[in-house]
Write a structure and sequence with these properties.
By secondary structure, this protein is an alpha+beta fold. 28% of the residues lie in helices and 24% in strands. The chain is globular and about 60 Å long. Bound molecules: 2,5-anhydro-1,6-di-O-phosphono-D-mannitol (AHM) and magnesium ion. Magnesium ion binds next to strand 5.
C-alpha cells in the first residue's frame, strides 16, 4: 500500500517552504502532546496546577505542558515571528525583527480541558496568519495579530481520541492525517474531507437552553420536534464538550456545532474564543463545503479587536447554517 505522509504532502511546490516548516513544527509538537495524553494517570500530567489563565479558568497541568511543547518546537521555525495562545495573556515573540513574508501562529494547546480527567477526546487547535506587510524590519506587536479569520493562510486541529488525527487546510480543501504510533508519522487518510450539505444531527449544550436567543431556541425546538415537526425528520443530538471532537464529527459526517451567545452574560459574545478556536474551525468547515455564522455574519469576516475575544459560534452543514441565518434575520 502506498502512503503519503504529512512531510511529503507539505513538500508540494505550491506550499511556501517556511509555511511547510511551521506546520511541520506544530505537527511535531502534537505528536509529543499525544504521547503525554496517552500516558495519562500513569504519567505526571493529570490534575490542576492551581493557577488561572487570562480567561480566569483553572489551568490543568496538561494545558501548560502542551503550551510549553508548542512554544519550544515552533520557535525553531524560521518564518515564525510570534505566537499567541489561550494560555498566555499576551503574545510570545520569537524574533526581535519580523522576517519578510513571515507568519504568526495562534493556538489553543489543549482544547476540552474538562475532559482530561474523564479520558474523553481532547485536542489542539491552530491558526496561521501572515505578518502584516509593514511589520518587516521591526518587532511584531499584539495589534499585528488582530486580523480577520479570512486572512488565515492555514488552520488545523489535532484530535487526541482513539486515534490521533490532524485535519488541515491551507485554503485549498481539507486533508486528514492519522498518526501511526509505530513510527510517529502522519499518514494521509482523507485527501478531501467534505461535509454533507444536509444533516440529521446537531450539537449544543442543551443545559443552557433557557438562556438561548429566540432563533437558536427555534432551530433546536424544530429539530427536537422530529418527524412530526416542521423539519419532517428525526434528529440526533451529540455533545462531547470538546470543540475539537464535536467539530471533527461534523467534519466527518455532517451536522451542526453551536456554542452561541446566550443571556447568561449578555455582554459576552459567547464562550469560545474567536482567534484560536472559532476562526481556524470556521476556515476548515468552509473549506470542507460547510459554513459558519456568528449571529451577524460569516465568522471569518468578524472584526477582531482583541487577542482573546469571544465569539458566538454556529458551524457545519451549509443548509443548516443557511437556516440559522434565516432565523436570525426574522
Ligand atoms: P477550553 O478551551 O477551556 O477547554 O474550553 C472550550 C470547550 C470547548 O472545547 C467545548 O465546546 C466547550 O468548552 C464546552 O463547554 P461546556 O462545558 O459549557 O459544554
Ligand atoms: Mg479551547
Amino acid at each position: 500500500m502506498s502512503t503519503t505522509t504529512l512531510a511529503a504532502h507539505l513538500s508540494q511546490p505550491t506550499i511556501p517552504p517556511r509555511l511547510a516548516e511551521l506546520i511541520g513544527a506544530v505537527a511535531k509538537g502534537c505528536v509529543e502532546i499525544s504521547a503525554q495524553v496517552r500516558r495519562g494517570a500513569a504519567g505526571q500530567i493529570m490534575g490542576a496546577l492551581g493557577s488561572e489563565n487570562v480567561q480566569g479558568e483553572v489551568q490543568q497541568k496538561l494545558d501548560v505542558l502542551s503550551n510549553d511543547i508548542l512554544l519550544a518546537l515552533c520557535a525553531k521555525a524560521e518564518g515564525l515571528s510570534a505566537m499567541a495562545s489561550e494560555e498566555m495573556e499576551t503574545i510570545h515573540p520569537v524574533r526581535d525583527v519580523a522576517p519578510q513574508g513571515g507568519y504568526l501562529l495562534l493556538f489553543d494547546p489543549l482544547d476540552g480541558s474538562s475532559n482530561i480527567a474523564v479520558n474523553v477526546s481532547i485536542g489542539t487547535i491552530f491558526s496561521i496568519l501572515p505578518t502584516p506587510a509593514d511589520s518587516a524590519g521591526r518587532a511584531v506587536a499584539e495589534a499585528d495579530f488582530l486580523q480577520p479569520g479570512r486572512n488565515q493562510v492555514a488552520a488545523g486541529y489535532v484530535v487526541y481520541g482513539p486515534q490521533t488525527q490532524m485535519v488541515l487546510t491551507l485554503g485549498d480543501g481539507v486533508c486528514a492525517f492519522t498518526l501511526d504510533p509505530d513510527c510517529d508519522d502522519w499518514v494521509l487518510t482523507n485527501p478531501a474531507m467534505t461535509i454533507p450539505a444536509e444533516t440529521k444531527e446537531f450539537a449544543i449544550n442543551t443545559a443552557n437552553a433557557r438562556h438561548w436567543a429566540a432563533p437558536v431556541s427555534r432551530y433546536v425546538e424544530e429539530c427536537l420536534a422530529g418527524v412530526e415537526g416542521p423539519r419532517g425528520k428525526d434528529f440526533n443530538m451529540r455533545w462531547v464538550a470538546s470543540m475539537v471532537a464535536d467539530v471533527h464529527r461534523v467534519m466527518s459526517r455532517g451536522g451542526v456545532f453551536m456554542y452561541p451567545w446566550d443571556k447568561r452574560e449578555p455582554n459576552r459574545p459567547g464562550k469560545l474564543r474567536l482567534m484560536y478556536e472559532a476562526n481556524p474551525m470556521a476556515l476548515l468547515v468552509e473549506q470542507a463545503g460547510g459554513a459558519s455564522f456568528d449571529g451577524a455574519g460569516d465568522t471569518l469576516d468578524a472584526p477582531v479587536t482583541s487577542l482573546h475575544q469571544r465569539a458566538s459560534v454556529m458551524m457545519g452543514s451549509k443548509a443548516e447554517i443557511a437556516r440559522l441565518r434565516d432565523y436570525h434575520a426574522v
